Amino acid sequence: MLRTLSLFTVSLFLLIMLMSAFVIIPKVNQMFESQHHEDLQVELALEAALFNNFVESQRTIIEDLATYPSLTSAVMLSDASNRTIQELLDNVIIGGEKGRLVLQDIAGNVLMQTGKNLQADYVTDNQWIEPLLSGVKPYHFQLLSQEGQRLTFKMSVPVLYNSYVEGLLSSEMTVSLADVFVIKSFNNNVAFKLVQDNLVIDTGTKHIKTFRENSMQLPGPNLTFIFITDDALIIDSKRSLQNTILSVLFFSFVLSFLVFVVLGYQGLLQAQHTNSIRFSFWKTYALPILVGVIGVSASISAYMMTLNLEKTTIEKALTVESQQKINAIRASIDKNLQSLDAVKAFYSASASVSRQEFKTFTAPLLANHDNIQALEWIPNISHSQREYYQQQAKLDGISHFAIKEKSANGSLIVAKMRDNYFPVYYVEPMTGNEKSVGFDLASNSRRLAALMDAEKHNRKVATAKINLVQEQGSQSGILVFNPIFSDDVTSDMTEQAQHLRGFVLMVLRVGDLIASTSMSGAGQLSLYIEDVSDADSPEVIYGNSPVNNAFSRAEILTVAGRNWRISTYSEINDESIVWSAWLILIGGMILSGIISLGMVHLIRRREIVEQLVNIRTSELTASEEEYRAVVENAVDGLITIDEQGRIEKFNASAQKMFGYADTEVIGSNIKMLMPEPYHGEHDGYLKNYHDTSVKKIIGIGRYVEGKHKDGRVFPIELSISEMLFANSKKFSGIVRDISKRIALEKEREKFIDELTDSNEELERFAYVCSHDLQEPLRMIRSFSEKLQEHIADDLKNDAKGQKYFNFVTDGASRAQTLITDILAYSSISSDTQILERVNIESLINVIRTNMLANQEVNKGKITFEPLPELQGNKTQLLQLFQNLINNGMKYQKPEQIPHVHISAEDAGEHWTFIVKDNGIGMEERHFKKIFEVFQRLHRRSQFAGTGVGLSICKKVVERHGGTIWVNSKKGFGSTFYIKLLKPTPIKEN
Amino acid sequence: MTENVRLAEILLVEDNEGDIELTREAFEEAKFRNKLHIAEDGDIALDYLFKRNGYENAVTPDIILLDLNLPSTDGREVLEIIKAEPMLKRIPVIVLTSSQADKDIVESYDLHANCYIVKPVNAMKFMGVVRSVENFWVDIVCLPSVNN
Looking at this predicted complex, what is its ipTM? Predict the structure, then answer.
């Protein structure tokens, strides 16, 4: 039973293992896989969105350019010789280098082009133009080539006038792949591919071990975006998960196998010490505790794993969100900075830009970039020019223009006299920025630092966080300076300052900037931006620093020479996500508990049953041993044979009887123990029984003969019984050697014969004797009487002589009586049995008549109640009753009148005759003696007699199959009881 | 005769009148002065010996002559009772019977009979045996004192 349970446990584990191998692991894999796939889809979408953003920002650059009014008019007129436009295009800087631009009219004719090495075919390839012209597509993006880590593409946008397409502006741009895909911001196990019209651009895939490509059709750029991830990691995790599951199962299996072995061994021990085992703590609880511990550990591990998995999932989601947010911000800033480049290009193309021209140029830019607070023109004004500019501004309609600075108390005042001023001269849009007009940016240290940096390095430089002059709210602001030099910039720094015309400036409110990124509001993450250009004293630009970091991720973003650290964080631990882990933990523990308790219950039950079984088994064994002992020690031989007659069992007695050891006969045919004719006929008997099922000997005893090993044939008594089993039959025979019995029987028969002979002889002898002895006795008696008469005279005085004569005659007379009685006694058995119906009443009447006639002196009474008839020898029955009645009359007290009363009682199959007298009675010790031959209770002088009468009665009764006994008390008469069979009913015939 | 010669008391237990007569005559002819008491059956013999039922004044015999075949209580029973009774067991019991059966002889001696004699069929021999018995058991054999 225990082993069965262990086996069950092992099987269960094995089953679980197999199930895990064939069901659970693939299922887990599948789930893992689908989760992974989902993650990848999300990432793909994100990356695609980022790429779209990139394309959009590039498009913005060209569109910004395309909205320039002179450009529009030049296109409308197909004026290929417009110098201004040509110069503008020549000075456009895209991505830090001169833009390669192509301006076409609606017919596709190239009006102007700048830069060298244009890769696209603008003259003959017109297929892409039509969708732009018809307004189906807002732009055309075309991959051109890849050179190492650099990508060249073409971006074409329509040139619009009042929403009508008037021409086409295209730009060929070469960018670093790293800028396009921001690979470094993600992880190193990804790569990207862009496929457009058989042209494939990729970011390099050497580092990918196991490819997994997820592609997405991007309708905007009209290309296939392929996101490549390395499955090696996921495969590794999958493998490690599988290994974990399998090793846990294998461990459990090994453990359970050990348990099985230990318990199995215990079970064996137990089988040997059946009754000594009681409920032991370890035996009962070890396995359940083990199972419980394993279950709890497994639950905890599962809980940890789930928790970990969940956390990883959440973290990943948050990471993705963080990346999305940061990338959006990056894209937005990049886009704005590009537009500042466009303004710079505009300035570079023109020797002077009027306030109106500035307004006209920046209007579409501002419309496109609604998160730009303002675009400004900051001219470099020497003190001598101050008055001129103020006048000029008034002419432009700015009535109260003055160069201002901030006083110590924060209010704006007219700037003090300096060598150079950098006032805000043009501001677009004016609305909301009025306050800043005229403000000398050089008057403020932070602005001045950026300004000088920008001038010094001829590049865009952002300020540290500042409070905008026009700020109404509480947002941080930054300014980005882009220096404009009057001549081509040389590397000679000393000369640059001489030619500095001023700065185009972009004013950004950080709050607006963040708000404009589409993803800023969504999601769980908060933003926190610091300016960490000075690592020692970071300045908060946006948001609040996190109180705690449930999740935090940051990236450094370079914004026009300043380093911003953009942190995304979540302060709340999302506990709801952990419920499944808790569910697994609690559920697993409850399940373990239930299983353990169930096992305890089962084991206890099993132990009870086992002990019961042990008790029963030991009882059974005892009885079996007893049975075996009985069989083995049986006096009778016991032989069992199978259906074919082969001997299976041959006990000790059988071995002794037949002279064979059991090893000699087991397996042999039973015939070998039989002499002819049994030997030859036995097969036939068996076959006959099989065929007909007619039993000849089975179930009945029979006398047959057996053959001893030494060839001796001896008589046996054989009884065969049949034993039916589930699918076989056996016969068991009990064999008894009856040689001795038969010998004894023969001897007995001989004795009986002899005895019968001698009895008959004796009776004959007694009969003869009696008759023949009468003669000489008669002689003695008669002649002694004669002699007595003859010498009567002589005897007259001789008393002694008389006495002697009396002795002689008396002796002779007694001898005669004795002989008569012996004759009567012996004749009872010698008489042939004459069975007849005897009327006892008439019998007694005869006796009474005779008696009264013969014994007149002794006048007795004989009475009787109605008496039944008997069946028997009439003479003998007469003798019986006569003797009893005689005795009743004889053994009497002298003065008493004898009375014998005869009655009968019904005793079932018998009649009991009761002969009761009123005589002298007798002591109890004589009740048996009186029925013996020649036994007397009285002296002859008291009562004459031979002691034969009652013997005759007894013999008669016994000859009739009855019994006789007496009951008496001395002095109070005797009662004789005669019990005889009732006569058989008379047959009517 | 002499004063120191004590008269022996002999109890004859016998139901056959003929044998009683012969025994008595044998005693008379021998002119013994020993006294012969007759008990005609076993019951009387026991009454006599235990001095009851009218035999209260009976004299304890020195010798008992006992027939085996007696009516009522037979000789074997009488013998057994005598030999089981401390007051009587020292009295020599001479079994005098007509039975020659080995069974009776063995049984008698087993019951501590002092000797076993078969009655001769001839009357003269019978009387001779009786005289011999008397002679041997009274004159020759040394008997314990009655008072003991």
Answer: 0.79
